[in-house]
Amino acid sequence: MARKKRRQRNIPKRKGFNRRRRLDSAKSWLPTYEGGNVVKGYRKRYGVDWATAFKEQEMLGVKVDPGYKGRVLRSVREQAEARKRKRLEKAAELESALDEFQDEDFAFIAGYTSWGFPYGLTWEEWEALEESESEEDE
User: Fold this and answer.
1) Domain around 114
2) For residue 1, what pLDDT band results from cuts at 50, 70 and 90?
3) Can you give the pTM of this predicted structure?
4) 1 in a domain, yes or no?
5) Does residue 47 sit in the same domain as residue 113?
6) Which of the four pLDDT bands, split at 50, 70 and 90, describes residue 54?
7) Total structural domains in the chain?
8) Residues 63 and 24 in one domain
9) Cα distances (Å, whole numbers) of residue 61 to 34, 39, 57, 95, 102
């Protein structure tokens, strides 16, 4: 019986390291780093977030400017809040656009099953009907 082929990983193995392995690997990587921003390079090389990169660089003894650290972490936090706010606005917009006979799955809810599940015309079916009607008009 033939052996099953192993699937190759598309990402480098180092991006899956835990903290201990990252720190061991970074000890040999740091002296060879030629970029201008060590924290940014570390973050990209090991696939960690900014807070983890700052913490682990400090554990390795790299001097990090506290002002830079504060600005970056504040910016990351503000970006996350903006994404959350945008997602909530989009959900609220969708809610306001739908009436009691519609939801995100159904363009028209004809009724509900005995278990409370809606049934009716889905958005895909609705769009297909509109397309066929526009073709008939032409």
Assistant:
1) 106-137
2) low
3) 0.62
4) no
5) no
6) very high
7) 2
8) yes
9) 17, 12, 6, 51, 58
